Amino acid sequence: MQDHRRYHGHIGGEAESLAFPDRASGEEGATSPRAPDAFCRQLLIAVEQSPVAIAITDLAGRIEFANQCYLEITGYPREELLGRTPAMIQSGETPESVYRDLWGAILAGRVWQGELLNRRRNGELYWASEVITPVRNDQGKLVSFVAVKEDITERRRQEQELRLLATVFETGQATLITDAEMRIEKVNQAFTDITGYEEDEVRGETPRLFKSGRHDKAFYRRLWQTLLETGHWQGEIWNRNKYGEIYPLWQSITAVQDEMGEVRNYVAVFHNISERKRMEQELEHQATRDHLTGAYNRRAFDAALRQSVSKANQDGEPFALLLFDIDHFKSVNDRHGHEMGDEILRRLAQRIRESLRNTDLLARWGGEEFTILLPDTRLQGAATFAERLRRQIADSRIRGLSVTVSIGITAYRPGDDADRLLSRADDALYRAKKAGRNSVVIHTEPVEGVQEGPAA
Protein backbone atom coordinates (compact mmCIF):
# COMPACT_ATOMS: atom_id res chain seq x y z
CA MET A 1 0.00 0.00 0.00
CA GLN A 2 1.30 3.46 -0.91
CA ASP A 3 2.38 5.90 1.76
CA HIS A 4 1.25 9.55 1.68
CA ARG A 5 3.48 12.58 1.88
CA ARG A 6 2.11 15.94 3.11
CA TYR A 7 3.28 18.88 1.03
CA HIS A 8 3.41 22.42 2.36
CA GLY A 9 3.57 25.25 -0.15
CA HIS A 10 2.19 28.61 -1.23
CA ILE A 11 -0.54 28.89 -3.83
CA GLY A 12 -2.12 32.22 -4.67
CA GLY A 13 -0.22 33.89 -1.86
CA GLU A 14 -1.66 31.56 0.80
CA ALA A 15 0.04 28.67 2.59
CA GLU A 16 -1.57 25.34 1.76
CA SER A 17 -0.98 21.85 3.14
CA LEU A 18 -2.15 18.79 1.21
CA ALA A 19 -1.47 15.05 1.37
CA PHE A 20 -0.44 13.31 -1.87
CA PRO A 21 0.71 9.73 -2.61
CA ASP A 22 4.42 9.20 -1.86
CA ARG A 23 5.87 8.06 -5.18
CA ALA A 24 9.44 7.96 -3.85
CA SER A 25 8.90 4.48 -2.48
CA GLY A 26 8.22 3.08 -5.96
CA GLU A 27 10.42 2.95 -8.99
CA GLU A 28 8.06 4.38 -11.56
CA GLY A 29 8.37 8.13 -11.95
CA ALA A 30 11.08 8.53 -9.26
CA THR A 31 14.00 10.07 -11.06
CA SER A 32 15.70 11.79 -8.12
CA PRO A 33 15.40 12.19 -4.35
CA ARG A 34 13.49 15.46 -4.97
CA ALA A 35 10.95 13.96 -7.41
CA PRO A 36 8.14 13.44 -4.84
CA ASP A 37 8.23 17.07 -3.70
CA ALA A 38 8.31 18.28 -7.29
CA PHE A 39 5.38 16.04 -8.17
CA CYS A 40 3.35 17.26 -5.18
CA ARG A 41 3.99 20.88 -6.08
CA GLN A 42 3.04 20.24 -9.70
CA LEU A 43 -0.16 18.51 -8.61
CA LEU A 44 -1.06 21.30 -6.20
CA ILE A 45 -0.57 23.90 -8.94
CA ALA A 46 -2.73 21.84 -11.30
CA VAL A 47 -5.52 21.63 -8.71
CA GLU A 48 -5.27 25.36 -8.01
CA GLN A 49 -5.48 26.21 -11.71
CA SER A 50 -8.23 23.69 -12.52
CA PRO A 51 -11.20 25.18 -14.40
CA VAL A 52 -13.53 23.32 -12.02
CA ALA A 53 -14.04 24.32 -8.40
CA ILE A 54 -12.32 22.03 -5.88
CA ALA A 55 -12.45 22.12 -2.09
CA ILE A 56 -11.12 19.74 0.57
CA THR A 57 -12.71 19.50 4.02
CA ASP A 58 -12.03 17.53 7.18
CA LEU A 59 -14.55 15.02 8.49
CA ALA A 60 -16.47 17.77 10.26
CA GLY A 61 -16.83 19.63 6.97
CA ARG A 62 -14.36 22.40 7.80
CA ILE A 63 -12.71 23.68 4.63
CA GLU A 64 -8.96 23.01 4.50
CA PHE A 65 -8.35 23.94 0.88
CA ALA A 66 -10.23 25.76 -1.88
CA ASN A 67 -8.85 26.47 -5.33
CA GLN A 68 -9.19 29.70 -7.29
CA CYS A 69 -12.22 28.54 -9.26
CA TYR A 70 -14.02 27.69 -6.01
CA LEU A 71 -13.30 31.19 -4.73
CA GLU A 72 -14.61 32.75 -7.93
CA ILE A 73 -17.84 30.74 -7.91
CA THR A 74 -18.64 31.41 -4.26
CA GLY A 75 -17.34 34.98 -4.21
CA TYR A 76 -15.48 34.45 -0.93
CA PRO A 77 -11.79 35.21 -0.39
CA ARG A 78 -9.71 32.28 0.80
CA GLU A 79 -9.26 33.62 4.34
CA GLU A 80 -13.05 33.71 4.87
CA LEU A 81 -13.49 30.11 3.72
CA LEU A 82 -10.67 28.24 5.45
CA GLY A 83 -11.78 26.69 8.70
CA ARG A 84 -15.46 27.32 7.92
CA THR A 85 -17.99 24.76 6.69
CA PRO A 86 -19.89 24.87 3.37
CA ALA A 87 -22.98 25.77 5.41
CA MET A 88 -21.90 29.37 4.87
CA ILE A 89 -22.77 29.09 1.17
CA GLN A 90 -26.05 27.26 1.66
CA SER A 91 -29.05 29.20 0.39
CA GLY A 92 -31.72 27.73 2.62
CA GLU A 93 -33.60 26.79 -0.57
CA THR A 94 -32.29 23.21 -0.80
CA PRO A 95 -34.42 20.69 1.15
CA GLU A 96 -32.85 19.33 4.34
CA SER A 97 -33.45 15.81 3.06
CA VAL A 98 -30.83 16.43 0.35
CA TYR A 99 -28.18 17.25 2.94
CA ARG A 100 -29.17 14.23 5.06
CA ASP A 101 -28.67 11.99 2.03
CA LEU A 102 -25.37 13.75 1.24
CA TRP A 103 -23.88 13.27 4.71
CA GLY A 104 -25.24 9.78 5.00
CA ALA A 105 -23.45 8.80 1.80
CA ILE A 106 -20.03 10.39 2.38
CA LEU A 107 -19.78 9.35 6.05
CA ALA A 108 -20.44 5.81 4.87
CA GLY A 109 -17.57 6.19 2.43
CA ARG A 110 -19.71 6.50 -0.68
CA VAL A 111 -19.39 9.14 -3.38
CA TRP A 112 -22.30 11.61 -3.47
CA GLN A 113 -23.35 13.44 -6.61
CA GLY A 114 -26.14 15.97 -7.01
CA GLU A 115 -27.22 19.56 -7.58
CA LEU A 116 -27.46 22.21 -4.87
CA LEU A 117 -28.87 25.73 -4.86
CA ASN A 118 -26.22 27.83 -3.12
CA ARG A 119 -25.71 31.50 -2.32
CA ARG A 120 -22.68 33.60 -3.27
CA ARG A 121 -21.08 36.07 -0.90
CA ASN A 122 -23.04 38.91 -2.56
CA GLY A 123 -26.33 37.11 -1.89
CA GLU A 124 -26.86 35.92 -5.45
CA LEU A 125 -28.26 32.40 -5.81
CA TYR A 126 -26.57 29.89 -8.09
CA TRP A 127 -26.94 26.24 -9.00
CA ALA A 128 -23.96 23.93 -8.53
CA SER A 129 -23.43 20.37 -9.72
CA GLU A 130 -21.27 18.69 -7.06
CA VAL A 131 -19.38 15.44 -6.64
CA ILE A 132 -18.11 14.77 -3.10
CA THR A 133 -15.61 11.96 -2.69
CA PRO A 134 -14.50 10.49 0.67
CA VAL A 135 -10.69 10.17 1.08
CA ARG A 136 -9.19 7.31 3.17
CA ASN A 137 -5.71 6.93 4.63
CA ASP A 138 -3.44 3.88 4.39
CA GLN A 139 -5.43 2.12 7.06
CA GLY A 140 -8.70 2.71 5.20
CA LYS A 141 -9.91 5.31 7.66
CA LEU A 142 -11.82 8.35 6.40
CA VAL A 143 -9.66 11.43 6.75
CA SER A 144 -11.24 14.07 4.47
CA PHE A 145 -13.67 14.85 1.69
CA VAL A 146 -12.94 16.31 -1.74
CA ALA A 147 -15.73 18.34 -3.35
CA VAL A 148 -15.66 19.14 -7.05
CA LYS A 149 -18.34 21.60 -8.16
CA GLU A 150 -19.46 23.33 -11.35
CA ASP A 151 -21.67 26.40 -11.66
CA ILE A 152 -24.64 25.23 -13.75
CA THR A 153 -26.88 28.27 -13.24
CA GLU A 154 -26.93 29.13 -16.94
CA ARG A 155 -27.55 25.53 -17.92
CA ARG A 156 -30.49 25.32 -15.51
CA ARG A 157 -31.88 28.58 -16.91
CA GLN A 158 -31.66 27.27 -20.45
CA GLU A 159 -33.24 23.98 -19.44
CA GLN A 160 -36.08 25.90 -17.84
CA GLU A 161 -36.52 27.94 -21.02
CA LEU A 162 -36.58 24.78 -23.10
CA ARG A 163 -39.19 23.24 -20.82
CA LEU A 164 -41.22 26.42 -21.10
CA LEU A 165 -40.89 26.39 -24.87
CA ALA A 166 -41.92 22.75 -24.96
CA THR A 167 -44.98 23.65 -22.91
CA VAL A 168 -45.81 26.58 -25.18
CA PHE A 169 -45.42 24.37 -28.24
CA GLU A 170 -48.14 22.10 -26.91
CA THR A 171 -50.57 24.93 -26.15
CA GLY A 172 -52.90 26.80 -28.48
CA GLN A 173 -50.42 29.67 -28.76
CA ALA A 174 -48.71 29.86 -32.14
CA THR A 175 -44.94 29.69 -31.69
CA LEU A 176 -42.07 30.49 -34.04
CA ILE A 177 -38.37 30.06 -33.24
CA THR A 178 -35.60 31.67 -35.29
CA ASP A 179 -31.83 31.71 -35.07
CA ALA A 180 -29.88 34.86 -34.23
CA GLU A 181 -30.16 35.98 -37.88
CA MET A 182 -33.98 35.67 -37.75
CA ARG A 183 -34.04 32.59 -39.97
CA ILE A 184 -36.96 30.39 -38.98
CA GLU A 185 -35.95 27.08 -37.41
CA LYS A 186 -39.14 25.68 -35.93
CA VAL A 187 -42.88 26.35 -35.71
CA ASN A 188 -45.73 24.51 -34.04
CA GLN A 189 -49.12 23.33 -35.27
CA ALA A 190 -50.91 26.41 -33.94
CA PHE A 191 -48.61 28.52 -36.15
CA THR A 192 -49.67 26.49 -39.19
CA ASP A 193 -53.34 26.80 -38.25
CA ILE A 194 -53.10 30.61 -38.15
CA THR A 195 -50.72 31.33 -41.05
CA GLY A 196 -51.48 28.44 -43.38
CA TYR A 197 -47.76 27.66 -43.71
CA GLU A 198 -46.29 24.25 -42.89
CA GLU A 199 -42.91 24.16 -41.17
CA ASP A 200 -41.02 22.98 -44.25
CA GLU A 201 -42.42 25.96 -46.21
CA VAL A 202 -40.99 28.56 -43.84
CA ARG A 203 -37.83 26.91 -42.49
CA GLY A 204 -34.87 29.12 -43.44
CA GLU A 205 -37.14 32.07 -44.29
CA THR A 206 -37.37 35.23 -42.17
CA PRO A 207 -40.56 36.71 -40.66
CA ARG A 208 -40.51 39.30 -43.45
CA LEU A 209 -42.44 36.62 -45.34
CA PHE A 210 -45.51 37.57 -43.28
CA LYS A 211 -45.34 41.38 -43.62
CA SER A 212 -48.75 42.88 -44.36
CA GLY A 213 -47.65 46.33 -45.53
CA ARG A 214 -49.79 47.89 -42.79
CA HIS A 215 -46.79 49.11 -40.76
CA ASP A 216 -44.19 51.69 -41.77
CA LYS A 217 -40.43 51.44 -41.26
CA ALA A 218 -40.64 53.47 -38.06
CA PHE A 219 -42.83 50.77 -36.49
CA TYR A 220 -40.24 48.07 -37.13
CA ARG A 221 -37.41 50.34 -35.96
CA ARG A 222 -39.18 50.84 -32.63
CA LEU A 223 -39.84 47.11 -32.35
CA TRP A 224 -36.19 46.21 -32.90
CA GLN A 225 -34.91 48.97 -30.64
CA THR A 226 -37.05 47.67 -27.77
CA LEU A 227 -36.08 44.06 -28.48
CA LEU A 228 -32.35 44.83 -28.59
CA GLU A 229 -32.44 47.02 -25.48
CA THR A 230 -34.65 44.86 -23.26
CA GLY A 231 -34.63 41.43 -24.88
CA HIS A 232 -38.42 41.50 -25.17
CA TRP A 233 -41.19 43.11 -27.23
CA GLN A 234 -44.92 42.64 -27.25
CA GLY A 235 -47.73 44.38 -29.04
CA GLU A 236 -50.28 44.33 -31.82
CA ILE A 237 -49.06 43.60 -35.32
CA TRP A 238 -50.76 42.89 -38.64
CA ASN A 239 -49.47 40.00 -40.77
CA ARG A 240 -50.38 38.35 -44.07
CA ASN A 241 -51.15 34.62 -44.24
CA LYS A 242 -50.30 32.15 -46.99
CA TYR A 243 -53.50 33.02 -48.85
CA GLY A 244 -52.87 36.78 -48.89
CA GLU A 245 -55.31 37.61 -46.11
CA ILE A 246 -54.28 40.32 -43.63
CA TYR A 247 -55.09 39.73 -39.97
CA PRO A 248 -54.18 41.23 -36.57
CA LEU A 249 -52.05 39.41 -33.99
CA TRP A 250 -51.04 39.98 -30.40
CA GLN A 251 -47.39 38.94 -30.42
CA SER A 252 -44.61 38.54 -27.88
CA ILE A 253 -40.97 38.24 -29.00
CA THR A 254 -38.19 37.16 -26.64
CA ALA A 255 -34.44 37.03 -27.27
CA VAL A 256 -32.82 33.84 -25.89
CA GLN A 257 -29.18 34.33 -24.90
CA ASP A 258 -26.35 31.84 -24.46
CA GLU A 259 -24.00 31.65 -21.47
CA MET A 260 -21.88 34.45 -22.99
CA GLY A 261 -24.86 36.79 -23.22
CA GLU A 262 -25.05 36.53 -27.02
CA VAL A 263 -28.46 36.11 -28.66
CA ARG A 264 -28.90 32.51 -29.72
CA ASN A 265 -32.56 32.49 -30.76
CA TYR A 266 -35.66 34.61 -30.98
CA VAL A 267 -38.96 33.11 -29.88
CA ALA A 268 -42.24 34.66 -31.07
CA VAL A 269 -45.52 33.61 -29.48
CA PHE A 270 -48.75 35.01 -30.90
CA HIS A 271 -52.47 34.55 -31.30
CA ASN A 272 -55.02 35.84 -33.79
CA ILE A 273 -57.06 38.74 -32.41
CA SER A 274 -59.35 39.21 -35.43
CA GLU A 275 -62.46 38.44 -33.41
CA ARG A 276 -61.41 40.79 -30.63
CA LYS A 277 -60.74 43.56 -33.16
CA ARG A 278 -64.12 42.94 -34.78
CA MET A 279 -65.85 43.27 -31.41
CA GLU A 280 -63.86 46.41 -30.61
CA GLN A 281 -64.85 47.94 -33.94
CA GLU A 282 -68.47 47.00 -33.33
CA LEU A 283 -68.41 48.59 -29.89
CA GLU A 284 -66.69 51.67 -31.28
CA HIS A 285 -69.28 51.85 -34.05
CA GLN A 286 -72.08 51.65 -31.50
CA ALA A 287 -70.44 54.32 -29.37
CA THR A 288 -69.70 56.75 -32.20
CA ARG A 289 -72.44 56.16 -34.79
CA ASP A 290 -76.05 57.17 -35.08
CA HIS A 291 -77.99 53.90 -35.09
CA LEU A 292 -80.57 55.08 -37.65
CA THR A 293 -78.42 56.66 -40.37
CA GLY A 294 -74.96 55.17 -39.75
CA ALA A 295 -73.51 58.69 -39.68
CA TYR A 296 -71.30 59.69 -36.77
CA ASN A 297 -73.18 60.82 -33.69
CA ARG A 298 -72.92 64.22 -32.06
CA ARG A 299 -70.44 63.07 -29.42
CA ALA A 300 -68.04 61.69 -32.03
CA PHE A 301 -68.40 64.83 -34.14
CA ASP A 302 -67.62 67.08 -31.17
CA ALA A 303 -64.39 65.16 -30.55
CA ALA A 304 -63.41 65.32 -34.24
CA LEU A 305 -64.16 69.04 -34.44
CA ARG A 306 -62.09 69.86 -31.35
CA GLN A 307 -59.22 67.79 -32.72
CA SER A 308 -59.40 69.68 -36.04
CA VAL A 309 -59.38 73.01 -34.21
CA SER A 310 -56.36 71.99 -32.15
CA LYS A 311 -54.47 70.87 -35.24
CA ALA A 312 -55.37 74.04 -37.14
CA ASN A 313 -54.25 76.22 -34.24
CA GLN A 314 -50.89 74.43 -34.30
CA ASP A 315 -50.11 74.23 -38.00
CA GLY A 316 -52.73 76.43 -39.68
CA GLU A 317 -54.29 73.59 -41.67
CA PRO A 318 -57.63 74.88 -43.07
CA PHE A 319 -60.97 73.14 -42.69
CA ALA A 320 -64.61 74.02 -43.21
CA LEU A 321 -67.84 73.20 -41.41
CA LEU A 322 -71.30 72.67 -42.95
CA LEU A 323 -74.47 72.56 -40.88
CA PHE A 324 -77.72 71.69 -42.67
CA ASP A 325 -81.19 70.30 -42.13
CA ILE A 326 -84.03 68.89 -44.19
CA ASP A 327 -86.59 71.48 -45.21
CA HIS A 328 -90.14 70.99 -43.92
CA PHE A 329 -89.22 67.64 -42.36
CA LYS A 330 -91.94 67.93 -39.71
CA SER A 331 -94.56 68.09 -42.45
CA VAL A 332 -93.18 64.88 -43.97
CA ASN A 333 -93.53 63.10 -40.64
CA ASP A 334 -97.02 64.49 -40.08
CA ARG A 335 -98.31 63.56 -43.55
CA HIS A 336 -96.47 60.28 -44.24
CA GLY A 337 -95.57 58.96 -40.80
CA HIS A 338 -92.33 58.51 -38.87
CA GLU A 339 -91.42 55.36 -40.78
CA MET A 340 -91.24 57.41 -43.97
CA GLY A 341 -89.31 60.09 -42.10
CA ASP A 342 -86.76 57.56 -40.91
CA GLU A 343 -86.36 56.19 -44.42
CA ILE A 344 -85.69 59.68 -45.77
CA LEU A 345 -83.03 60.24 -43.10
CA ARG A 346 -81.32 56.93 -43.98
CA ARG A 347 -81.43 57.50 -47.76
CA LEU A 348 -80.25 61.09 -47.45
CA ALA A 349 -77.29 60.12 -45.23
CA GLN A 350 -76.29 57.43 -47.72
CA ARG A 351 -76.40 59.83 -50.70
CA ILE A 352 -74.33 62.39 -48.83
CA ARG A 353 -71.71 59.77 -47.90
CA GLU A 354 -71.37 58.89 -51.58
CA SER A 355 -70.41 62.52 -52.28
CA LEU A 356 -67.73 62.74 -49.58
CA ARG A 357 -64.01 62.08 -49.58
CA ASN A 358 -62.55 59.46 -47.24
CA THR A 359 -61.27 62.23 -44.99
CA ASP A 360 -64.62 64.04 -44.70
CA LEU A 361 -66.88 63.37 -41.73
CA LEU A 362 -70.68 63.27 -41.77
CA ALA A 363 -72.57 63.39 -38.47
CA ARG A 364 -76.20 63.49 -37.46
CA TRP A 365 -76.41 66.58 -35.29
CA GLY A 366 -79.91 65.81 -34.06
CA GLY A 367 -83.38 65.26 -35.50
CA GLU A 368 -83.21 66.23 -39.16
CA GLU A 369 -79.99 68.23 -38.76
CA PHE A 370 -76.63 67.02 -40.11
CA THR A 371 -73.13 68.45 -40.12
CA ILE A 372 -70.12 67.82 -42.33
CA LEU A 373 -66.47 68.43 -41.45
CA LEU A 374 -64.29 69.10 -44.51
CA PRO A 375 -60.54 68.87 -43.75
CA ASP A 376 -58.02 70.74 -45.90
CA THR A 377 -60.82 72.88 -47.35
CA ARG A 378 -61.14 76.66 -47.51
CA LEU A 379 -64.39 78.63 -47.43
CA GLN A 380 -64.87 78.99 -51.19
CA GLY A 381 -64.20 75.30 -51.77
CA ALA A 382 -66.73 74.43 -49.09
CA ALA A 383 -69.31 76.72 -50.71
CA THR A 384 -68.80 75.06 -54.10
CA PHE A 385 -69.20 71.60 -52.55
CA ALA A 386 -72.30 72.65 -50.57
CA GLU A 387 -74.04 74.09 -53.62
CA ARG A 388 -73.32 70.94 -55.63
CA LEU A 389 -74.67 68.80 -52.78
CA ARG A 390 -77.81 70.96 -52.47
CA ARG A 391 -78.58 70.54 -56.17
CA GLN A 392 -78.01 66.76 -56.12
CA ILE A 393 -80.46 66.36 -53.26
CA ALA A 394 -83.05 68.70 -54.80
CA ASP A 395 -82.87 66.90 -58.17
CA SER A 396 -83.48 63.46 -56.67
CA ARG A 397 -86.53 61.87 -55.09
CA ILE A 398 -86.73 59.59 -52.06
CA ARG A 399 -89.66 57.17 -52.01
CA GLY A 400 -91.40 59.44 -54.53
CA LEU A 401 -90.93 62.54 -52.39
CA SER A 402 -88.94 65.64 -53.27
CA VAL A 403 -86.49 66.61 -50.54
CA THR A 404 -84.47 69.81 -50.18
CA VAL A 405 -81.94 71.02 -47.63
CA SER A 406 -80.73 74.36 -46.25
CA ILE A 407 -77.01 74.66 -45.59
CA GLY A 408 -74.94 77.04 -43.47
CA ILE A 409 -71.17 77.27 -43.99
CA THR A 410 -68.21 78.56 -42.06
CA ALA A 411 -64.47 77.91 -42.09
CA TYR A 412 -61.69 77.92 -39.54
CA ARG A 413 -60.11 81.26 -38.69
CA PRO A 414 -56.98 81.70 -36.55
CA GLY A 415 -57.85 81.65 -32.87
CA ASP A 416 -61.17 79.86 -33.38
CA ASP A 417 -62.54 77.33 -30.96
CA ALA A 418 -65.19 74.68 -31.60
CA ASP A 419 -68.05 76.64 -30.03
CA ARG A 420 -67.34 79.73 -32.13
CA LEU A 421 -67.30 77.68 -35.33
CA LEU A 422 -70.58 75.97 -34.50
CA SER A 423 -72.18 79.28 -33.61
CA ARG A 424 -71.22 80.76 -36.98
CA ALA A 425 -72.45 77.69 -38.87
CA ASP A 426 -75.74 77.74 -36.97
CA ASP A 427 -76.20 81.43 -37.74
CA ALA A 428 -75.59 80.79 -41.44
CA LEU A 429 -78.11 77.92 -41.41
CA TYR A 430 -80.71 80.15 -39.77
CA ARG A 431 -80.23 82.73 -42.53
CA ALA A 432 -80.55 80.04 -45.22
CA LYS A 433 -83.93 79.01 -43.81
CA LYS A 434 -85.04 82.61 -43.48
CA ALA A 435 -84.08 83.21 -47.11
CA GLY A 436 -86.68 80.66 -48.22
CA ARG A 437 -84.88 77.36 -47.67
CA ASN A 438 -83.25 75.13 -50.32
CA SER A 439 -80.23 77.43 -50.25
CA VAL A 440 -76.61 77.74 -49.16
CA VAL A 441 -75.44 80.64 -46.98
CA ILE A 442 -71.90 81.51 -45.94
CA HIS A 443 -71.53 83.11 -42.53
CA THR A 444 -71.95 86.88 -42.74
CA GLU A 445 -68.76 88.05 -41.01
CA PRO A 446 -66.60 89.71 -43.69
CA VAL A 447 -63.82 87.51 -45.03
CA GLU A 448 -61.48 88.87 -47.68
CA GLY A 449 -62.25 87.51 -51.14
CA VAL A 450 -65.52 85.78 -50.16
CA GLN A 451 -69.01 86.88 -51.18
CA GLU A 452 -71.28 87.13 -48.16
CA GLY A 453 -74.79 85.75 -48.15
CA PRO A 454 -76.32 82.95 -50.25
CA ALA A 455 -73.95 80.92 -52.39
CA ALA A 456 -76.65 79.87 -54.81
UniProtKB/TrEMBL annotation:
Name under which the protein is recorded: Diguanylate cyclase (GGDEF)-like protein/PAS domain S-box-containing protein
A Pfam family that the UniProt record links to this protein: GGDEF
InterPro entries noted in UniProt: DGC-Regulatory_Protein, GGDEF_dom, Nucleotide_cyclase, PAC, PAS, PAS-assoc_C, PAS-like_dom_sf, Rev_trsase/Diguanyl_cyclase
Domain PAC: 110-164, 233-285
PROSITE patterns named in the record: GGDEF (PS50887), PAC (PS50113), PAS (PS50112)
Gene Ontology molecular function terms on file: catalytic activity
CDD domains, per the entry: GGDEF, PAS
Cofactor: Mg(2+)
PAS domain mapped to chain residues: 46-85, 158-206
Xref: Gene3D superfamilies: 3.30.70.270, PAS domain
Organism expressing this protein natively: Halomonas campaniensis
Tree of life domain: Bacteria
Start and end residues of each GGDEF domain: 317-445
